[in-house]
Amino acid sequence: MTPDPIRINPTTRREKKRRKREYILAVVFLVLIVGLTWAELKYLSGDYYLILNLLILNVVLLLAMLFYVARNAVRLMLERRRRVLGSKLRTRLVLAFISLSLIPTALIYLVSVKFVQTSVDYWFKGQVEESMEQALELGRAFYGSAQERLERRGAT
Question: Which terminal residue of the chain, N or C, has fewer Cβ atoms less than 10 Å from its own Cβ?
Fold first, then answer.
């Protein structure tokens, strides 16, 4: 019997699967970036390159964060099922972190959305009404002067 040769860089099936998933995820992100860039250039004017790049960066980072959180949630669930020592404590800590971070964030988001909505409505409500009244008055004046001209032509 000959001994197994020593591998300098051992790659197991598990490692190959992990690398394959990472490559697929990188390709998905690349396709997402290219797709968002194409959509922005097609449907919006081309003057918004900075905004486009910031938007794409935000989307990619959000997706990466969601992937990381989902992966850790699955890992935590598996640890709970296997009854790993300390998994209950870790679950409680994760739930405490989620409640301490997401609940205030959601409240701040809801308040800011309502604030912006009411501010914009307040800013433009008077201007729109006034503009519409002025447009109506202008239209009536135009049609009145046109009617007078037609009456003068008809009289002569």
Answer: N
